Amino acid sequence: MLNLNITRVQIEYLLFIQNYEGNKTITEASNYFNCSRVNSKKILDRMVVVGVLYKENNEYKLTQVGKDLSNIYNENLEKNIYILEKFLELDEEVARDVSYEILAKRIGSLQDALDRRYKFLKFSKNLKEKTRISNISELIGEGSYDIGFNIKKVQYCSDKSFVEDSMALRGFESYGKLVIEQKSYIELYAKTVKKAQDGYNRKGIATKLYYFKNNEEFEIESKEKTFKIPLDIIDYWSTSDGIILESSIILTIKSQLGMKNHVKKANFIFYINLCLI
């Protein structure tokens, strides 16, 4: 339906026909758009030829194709204006102008991205009222997304006002991926680190992760320095603003340091920014 060669001006006239409460005549259209009757008639008659309008007496009305198309444009126009005002802080007039340009260009990937931002911003209002979000797969939908993380020490020191980062953080790349599919997972990437030990600089790398579920320990083995942490082992996610989702899980890290194994627990904290998905 969107493959019809509809111009920006025709989109504006299409939404005028759908939304305007007065008579949809040439005179009303020319007054509304502040142009000549000749110009308005030329545009409206061309839209009749395209098949989105028909003329009954002196009024122009939407065909079924025109109704379907105008519904899509109305919905996308509302989304685009909302996103442009929120993210780019454009005033409504400029946001509306840019939104019409986006609709006219018909850039599918751009519209899809705007749709996702709009969806998550609307969700954020409801998410702020929830203390626990158990299934983020349904919220986000299938795909691969950036995820932020930190690794904290499990031990708490009463003489400090914060929990220190774990040294294990050095053993992972600074980025991760959230993969939503039939069996969703978080992907973290191990990297080689150097550590002085017994007078030598030894190389070390995380080789295995372990987690507990239902009082049973499970192993996550590194494959090509990549760990795939099952998403369903995380009980729930929380949010304070409806935009940043946060969760954590205690994992045991087994590292190979020279000829020795090093085993230690750490608190993995994950962050998802819905506005960047």
How would you describe what is shown here?
35% of the residues lie in helices and 33% in strands. The two termini are 27 Å apart. With 277 residues, the protein is α+β, with helices and mostly antiparallel strands. The protein contains 7 helices and 11 strands. It folds into 2 domains: 8-106, Arc Repressor Mutant, subunit A (Orthogonal Bundle); 136-276, Immunoglobulin-like. It has helices spanning 8-19, 26-33, 37-50, 64-87, 92-105, 108-127, 136-140, and strands spanning 53-56, 59-62, 143-152, 172-180, 185-190, 193-197, 200-213, 216-221, 226-230, 244-257, 260-273. The protein is elongated. Helix 1 packs across helix 4 and helix 4 (64-87) crosses helix 5 (92-105). Strand 4 (172-180) and strand 5 form a beta hairpin. Strands 3, 4, 5, 6, 7, 8, 9, 10 and 11 form a 9-stranded antiparallel sheet that branches. The chain has a two-stranded antiparallel ribbon with strand order 1-2. The model has no long low-confidence stretch (mean pLDDT 86). This is Manganese transport regulator MntR.
Percentage of residues in strands: 25-35%
Gross geometry: elongated
Radius of gyration: 28 Å
Whole-number average pLDDT? 86
Gap between N and C termini: 27 Å
The helix tally amounts to: 7
Order of helices and strands: HHHEEHHHHEEEEEEEEE
Helix and strand content put the structural class at alpha+beta
Question: How many strand elements?
Answer: 11
CATH class of the largest domain: Mainly Beta
Number of domains: 2
